[in-house]
Amino acid sequence: MLRSLFLAAAGSARLGRLVESAPVSRGIVQRFVAGHSAEEAVRVSRELADDGLAVSLDHLGAETRTAEQATAVRDEYLAVLGRLRDAGLTPAVEVSVKLSALGQAIDEKLAYEHAHAICAAAAEAGTTVTLDAEDHSTTDATLEAVVELRRDHPSTGAVLQAHLRRTEGDCRELATAGSRVRLCKGAYSEPESVAFQSALDVDKSFVRCLNILMSGEGYPMVATHDPRLISITEDRARWFDRSTGEYEFQLLYGVRPEEQARLAGGGHTVRIYLPYGDQWYGYLMRRLAASPAHAGFVARAVASR
Ligand code: FAD
């Protein structure tokens, strides 16, 4: 019920404006988002790097509807990569990119060219790019883009979503030498025809996919906050004799920070997915939907207006 409320709130522009301008927002926003600007993103990246954590920076922009907006997103990534290089934060900090933000729905070729330019800038800065996974209608195009991008930039990362029925097959395809693959449960609401619907089935699929990736030759990036799946990953690393530099954990900024510290303290590579940018509202509501402990936030933010 509460989860549905937050997800509905994520789509409400009016509530978004109220919450964005409410003073009470600041603390909770800062918990999950680095800030509005590239400067703030670099500052928080440095704090995380000083704590021994790796980072994947994600720019939260408005929905891309025009070629001009897509170009502006590309330019934002080029600029932040320059800042990361100048700050000496590469290779510890990489970037995560959504093809939709680069105009995939308007012109697939343009989005690919922008992604290629970002990969080239990342390589020049001494770091890498991961292409985020979006809804299932884009999976083929996004994975094809990763394959193409890898011709020039072999370290470009792919993301696979365990809730999709196809993903075990994709894991087999991608568990090859040099291949970086982030495995997550999947954040999009998908029909039964393409995706497992129950949490148990998604978890079972996650473990099957994890087994394929951990027993394969690639570099698995295990993106979950789920205590059981984290523990199974630690077990599989021992079972498949992977040292801590041969896979990594990934968690969202602000989610289970004590677990982030525990894993890093245990010698694991831990990468924090760190969003920044003006359009943080929808992202924040989706985080709150996953964490009803913060239920009072929206009510207080609105009541304070
Ligand atoms: P869940 O079942 O959501 O949570 C399991 C447990 O984790 C909960 O029971 C709770 O104990 C704990 N937990 C979860 N959230 C919170 C919270 N906010 N506060 C406190 N405890 C919490 N999805 C995509 O579709 N495409 C992507 O490219 C993508 N990239 C991602 C990158 C990273 C680094 C991460 C961590 C996730 C990414 N996701 C992506 C989102 C992912 O698919 C899931 O929707 C999200 O991670 C929640 O799944 P979970 O594995 O954490 O398990």
What does this structure look like?
This protein has 305 residues and is α/β, with parallel strands linked by helices. It has two domains: 1-32 and 280-305, no CATH class; 34-279, TIM Barrel, CATH 3.20.20.220. It is built from 13 helices and eight strands. Strands 3-2-1-8-7-6-5-4 form an eight-stranded parallel β-sheet. Helix 8 (167-174) links the parallel strand 4 and strand 5 (180-184). Helix 9 packs parallel to helix 10. The longest helix has 20 residues, at 67-86. It is globular, with a radius of gyration of 19 Å. The model has no long low-confidence stretch (mean pLDDT 91). The structure holds flavin-adenine dinucleotide. The site of flavin-adenine dinucleotide has 22 residues, from strand 4 and strand 7. Residues 132-133, 159, 161, 184-188, 223-226, 250-252, 255-256, 273, 287, 290-291 line the site of flavin-adenine dinucleotide (FAD).
Mean pLDDT: 91
The global form is globular
Q: How helix-rich are the residues, as a percent range?
A: 40-55%
User: Number of helical segments?
Assistant: 13
According to CATH, the fold-level topology of the largest domain is TIM Barrel
First-residue to last-residue Cα separation: 25 Å
Structural class: alpha/beta
How many extended strands?
A: 8
Largest sheet: 8 strands, parallel
Radius of gyration: 19 Å
Bound molecules: flavin-adenine dinucleotide
How would you spell out the order of helices and strands? HHHHEHEHEHEHEHEHEHEHH
Order of strands in the sheet with most strands: 3-2-1-8-7-6-5-4
Strand content: 5-15%
Oligomer: single chain
Instruction: Provide the CATH top-level class of the largest domain.
Output: Alpha Beta
CATH architecture of the largest domain: Alpha-Beta Barrel
